[in-house]
From TrEMBL:
<protein>
    <submittedName>
        <fullName>FAD-binding oxidoreductase</fullName>
    </submittedName>
</protein>
<dbReference type="Pfam" id="PF01565">
    <property type="entry name" value="FAD_binding_4"/>
</dbReference>
<dbReference type="InterPro" id="IPR006094">
    <property type="entry name" value="Oxid_FAD_bind_N"/>
</dbReference>
<dbReference type="GO" id="GO:0016491">
    <property type="term" value="F:oxidoreductase activity"/>
</dbReference>
<dbReference type="InterPro" id="IPR036318">
    <property type="entry name" value="FAD-bd_PCMH-like_sf"/>
</dbReference>
<feature type="domain" description="FAD-binding PCMH-type">
    <location>
        <begin position="34"/>
        <end position="202"/>
    </location>
</feature>
<dbReference type="InterPro" id="IPR016167">
    <property type="entry name" value="FAD-bd_PCMH_sub1"/>
</dbReference>
<dbReference type="InterPro" id="IPR050416">
    <property type="entry name" value="FAD-linked_Oxidoreductase"/>
</dbReference>
<dbReference type="GO" id="GO:0071949">
    <property type="term" value="F:FAD binding"/>
</dbReference>
<dbReference type="InterPro" id="IPR016166">
    <property type="entry name" value="FAD-bd_PCMH"/>
</dbReference>
<keyword id="KW-0560">Oxidoreductase</keyword>
<keyword id="KW-0285">Flavoprotein</keyword>
<comment type="similarity">
    <text>Belongs to the oxygen-dependent FAD-linked oxidoreductase family.</text>
</comment>
<keyword id="KW-0274">FAD</keyword>
<dbReference type="InterPro" id="IPR016169">
    <property type="entry name" value="FAD-bd_PCMH_sub2"/>
</dbReference>
Length: 434
């Protein structure tokens, strides 16, 4: 493309074009099952470099798709400049104000490590390698969301580059519409280079995983429902049906409690009345150790996912989940929501009133397996009490923004997109327009 001939001289960061050594490696997303085309890849040096890239793209009729490291990619990047923001990695903690200022490339684990010595925490998800900014732009479901709501609800300001190439500081007071859209509406409206967010007290944390053979799944499920029916907001419990290659099927309970170990053990007492587990990693831990609970892969790999929000987990739903082995799926996860998620939220998602989230995951090792995984996901989703709404950050490549947002919120997002980026310079993983 002739428009790209002078790109290297326009930015300070590293530029790779098709045919350059390593181009195919740097354009790949985290999910290797997604094919991600790109006209070029730019690793921005800093926020000023991002602004220079936007001005270049605007002058040359190019579009930009932004990803720190490729989580949430859907492959909608054909013809775009793929912007990597991993080098925007500053972390500043103000313990007195309980605030953090972080660059767009900072992963969750780094923020947690910086906050932990001060007895504070961000709102981390299950993986320490996902960028905080990427999660916040999608709303964000956290281990501590039952206590503190969406990840986006804790964001107090964004540093962005707008579609004209200007660097701006955006707050609820300075630009209410853009601030609202960025707190969960995705990356369609501006490029975020840094954000400021509230941190939360975490003087003590108890958490870990218990694991049983799948034959105990009915008893584990009964205990799970008993615990989640009465759980305080500081307690989060997830149930996982697991079937790893070469291993027997298993069932796990993952839990975190923002409080002392004695109270946590009391709340989780129904688990101690179950048959002896294969393993039990529960302990007092630092908030920087949360990634050890589910031990998700920290390197890219292929996967097929589907998420649903469940209106309940009654006997019929339980019977459906446990009726037969989950294969060819690798995992079926049920996350307890409620608490602060269900309270008013000034973001595109609004309150999350469904009490449970379902996440179905499999590996497409070959085309036949991919079809079988997708079919099993569809069958389970259709048989369970799903609301029809999905968390935006959990959307897969076959889904659209209309699957996540209510019509009124989606209409507002589309108006903001048209107003702030009428040339469609910015291309989100899941664009609000389609």
């Amino acid at each position: 493309m002739n428009e790209l001939n002078t790109l290297r001289s326009a930015v300070e960061g590293r530029v790779r074009l098709p045919g350059d050594p390593g181009f195919d490696d740097v354009r790949r997303p985290w999910n290797l099952a997604v094919e991600q085309p790109a006209a070029a890849v730019v690793e921005a040096a800093d926020a000023a470099d991002v602004a220079a890239l936007v001005r270049y793209a605007r002058a040359n009729g190019l579009a930009i798709a932004t990803q720190p490291n490729g989580h949430g990619a859907t492959g909608r990047t054909g013809g775009t400049v793929l912007l990597r923001t991993a080098r925007l990695d500053t972390v500043e903690i103000d313990p007195a104000a309980r605030r953090a200022r972080i660059g767009a490339g900072v992963p969750s684990g780094r923020l947690q490590a910086a906050a932990a010595p001060h007895g504070l925490t961000g709102l981390p998800g299950s993986s320490p390698v996902v960028s905080v900014t990427g999660v916040a732009l999608g709303g964000g479901l956290s281990w501590f969301g039952r206590a503190h709501g969406w990840v986006a609800d804790s964001v107090t300001a964004f540093d962005v580059v707008d579609a004209d190439g200007w660097q701006r500081h955006v707050t609820a007071g300075s630009d209410p519409d853009l601030f609202w859209a960025l707190r969960g509406g995705g990356g369609d409206f501006a490029i975020v280079t840094a954000l400021e967010l509230a941190l939360h007290p975490a003087p003590s944390l108890y958490g870990g995983r218990m694991l049983w053979t799948a034959g105990h799944a009915p008893e584990v499920m009964d205990a799970y429902r008993q615990i989640t029916a009465e759980a305080p907001e500081e307690l989060t419990v997830w149930l996982d049906l697991l079937h790893f290659p070469g291993a027997d099927p298993m069932v796990a309970i993952d839990a975190t409690y923002l409080g002392d170990a004695g109270r946590a053990r009391d709340l989780l007492a129904p688990l101690d009345r179950l048959p002896r587990p294969l393993s039990d990693s529960r302990r007092t831990m630092a908030v920087s150790e949360l990634g050890t609970i589910t031990a998700e892969p920290t390197d890219p790999g292929p996967g097929l996912s589907r998420a649903e929000l469940l209106t309940g987990l009654d006997d019929t739903a339980v019977k459906t989940l446990l009726a037969e082995p989950i294969a060819p799926l690798l995992s079926v996860q049920v996350r307890h929501l409620g608490g602060a998620f269900a309270r008013p939220s000034d973001g595109p998602h609004g309150p999350l009133t469904e009490p449970y989230a379902l996440y179905l995951f499999g590996i497409p090792s070959d085309p036949a397996t991919a079809r079988a995984v997708t079919a099993r996901q569809r069958a389970l989703a259709e048989a369970l009490p799903a609301s029809g709404r999905k968390p935006f950050s959990f959307l897969n490549p076959a889904e659209t923004a209309a699957d996540a947002f209510a019509p009124a919120a989606l209409d507002r997002l589309r108006r903001i997109k048209q107003d702030r980026d009428p040339r469609n310079t910015f291309r989100s993983n899941v664009p609000v327009a389609g």
